[in-house]
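Technical note accompanying the year-one report. For the benefit of new consortium partners, we illustrate the data format agreed upon in the data management plan: each record pairs a sequence with a structure-token string. No post-processing was applied to the example shown here.
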Amino acid sequence: METNGSLPGELKKIVDYLSYASVDIKLPGHEAVLDWENLFQRELESINLLIDEGINTYCKVVVLPSTSEDEIGWIASRVKQDVQKSSKLLMVLQPASPLENWAHCQSKLLGISAETGKHLDVLTIPQVHKLLGLR
């Protein structure tokens, strides 16, 4: 299942039906909500719930060319600190589409990945649904 992780109480109701879960983590710079800290805490609660229930779980962060290494490093360190079994968690970085926006930023993407890797196991995977033209 892919989830934004914002409703851990609802997630708890269906956890017995899951084998795998992808939980989005929004960065403060995404300006997705007014109360980012509250959203982040709910995302972490969802991740902890899934891992505690034995669900193969990873978290996913969409990164922009404007995302700083410091911001992603801070997020990764918070996830490592606040997820009790963080050794069982991967962080997937997804460079925002279109990938052409990254043409002159490859070293930045590698730096973001390296900074994340100081805290968690990390994979960098493009937004495949966008490459395939799916919604």
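Partners are asked to follow this layout when depositing records. Residues 2-131 form a domain with the TIM Barrel fold (CATH 3.20.20.70).
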